[in-house]
Backbone:
């Protein structure tokens, strides 16, 4: 270690020091808001308003979490979000793979035309009203399909997977397989998919994060509160202060209601973020690889 440091010039040491300092500052700027929300969820809201809560909880309380976990709307939102994420991810990843593989094959007639047609849809769309009318005409309003079908074939994801296939699967592999009598379908299932576990993991992560954090489609297409995902429940609490009556059943005064509402706000943010915080470290290496795939080959 000392030999390596001796080989570095003063300029290199200064450059590394500045980089580490900047990265540390950026890390703190990113982590502190989440840490503060975590601390605030265990603290007395009156002390938070007074600016006395900073690095550790004050007026420690679990009242917010007790009310959250005893409320049926939170658990129902959790169940709905998990359902939408699982079903939407399965459909989205399948559509993405089935669309990207043919576009990666050089023997697909009209591949460039199809690709340009798909690229146009990335920059131009019919807008919200035509999309709503289409969903309505398809009788998908207030159903799970309104959330998982329209975004199943995201063109950006298709491009990423197509690029992966082009840079990872050589044409010679297909030529050798076809000489042995292998069909396109068998080649896809037996060779392409087993060699594409990393990009499939990337797509799973992209879709799960998208469905878990999404609330706008549910806000537009769902009108039954029993079908609301967790993020829409969270939005109603954060933006509109719509806390379910079950959480306020033993609260009478307005001041006490505001206090409990603030506790619930911080607690729900932590509860809703926890699944992704647990999942991300296991898929981080695939996430980084997915981001870098586009820079390998256009």
Residues:
């Amino acid at each position: 270690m000392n030999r390596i440091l001796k080989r570095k010039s003063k300029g290199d040491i200064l450059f590394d020091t500045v980089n580490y300092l900047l990265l540390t500052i950026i890390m703190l700027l990113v982590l502190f808001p989440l840490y503060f929300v975590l601390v605030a969820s265990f603290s007395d809201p009156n002390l938070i308003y007074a600016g006395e809560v900073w690095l550790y909880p004050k007026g420690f309380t679990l009242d917010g979490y007790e009310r959250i976990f005893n409320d049926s709307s939170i658990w129902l939102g959790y169940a709905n979000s998990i359902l939408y994420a699982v079903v939407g991810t399965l459909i989205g990843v399948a559509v993405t793979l089935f669309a990207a593989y043919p576009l990666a094959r050089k023997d697909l007639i009209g591949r460039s035309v199809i690709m340009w047609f798909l690229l146009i849809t990335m920059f131009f769309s019919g807008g919200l009203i035509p999309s709503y009318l289409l969903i309505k005409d398809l009788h998908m309003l207030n159903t799970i399909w309104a959330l998982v079908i329209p975004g199943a074939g995201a063109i950006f994801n298709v491009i990423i997977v197509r690029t992966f296939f082009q840079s990872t699967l050589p044409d010679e592999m297909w030529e050798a397989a076809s000489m042995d009598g292998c069909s396109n379908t068998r080649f896809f299932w037996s060779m392409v998919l087993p060699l594409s576990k990393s990009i499939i993991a990337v797509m799973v992560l992209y879709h799960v994060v998208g469905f878990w954090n999404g609330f706008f489609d549910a806000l537009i297409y769902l009108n039954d509160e029993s079908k609301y995902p967790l993020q829409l429940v969270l939005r109603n609490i954060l933006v509109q202060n719509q806390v379910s009556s079950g959480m306020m059943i033993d609260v009478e005064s307005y001041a006490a209601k505001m206090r409990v509402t603030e506790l619930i706000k911080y607690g729900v943010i932590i509860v809703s973020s926890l699944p992704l915080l647990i999942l991300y470290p296991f898929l981080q290496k695939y996430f980084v690889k997915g981001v870098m795939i586009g820079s390998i080959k256009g």
Q: What stands out?
A: The mean pLDDT is 81.
